[in-house]
Specification:
Structural class: mainly alpha
Radius of gyration: 25 Å
Oligomer: single chain
Strand content: under 5%
Shape: elongated
Order of helices and strands: HHHHHHH
Number of domains: 1
Distance between the termini: 47 Å
Number of strands: 0
Number of helices: 7
Helix content: over 70%
Amino acid sequence: MGIHAVSVMLEALNRDAQHATIAKFIQNELDAEREKVALLHQQGTQQSDLLREQGAQQFELLRQQQAAAGGSMHSRRPETLKIDISKYRGVEEDSLLRWFVELDDAMRARRIDDGDMQVAFAQSNLAGRAKTWALGLKLHDPYAFGSLEVFKSRLRQTFEPP
């Protein structure tokens, strides 16, 4: 419907009816946009869940590969200490530097020395925007993070203020 047709329709109504018609139109537009936002939120949540699951699977696969490659040496290795670290979400209140310190400490305690394992472990400790960002890069390029240093550098570029 063109602007002229709408203008003719509104002129035929009294002032209160014009306001009511315009208000109803605006409300319908708001409702449509809210539905779009709800759908995007649902899709984002599904993608985040998928990322979390894929990260856990990738980490487990790399752990198994490392264990298989280690063979009998695995039984001679000293026990590792499992240190939990906070999830980095990529939001303003998260300190990326503090998260890097936690990450390095946890990898040292767990004796994660292999570069691929380090990246997988780091990714498994992402959440929210940061996890979505990392998965998006890996979906386009499975080798987007060649090393832990590349991973950290790209995180800094993306989430630290200039």
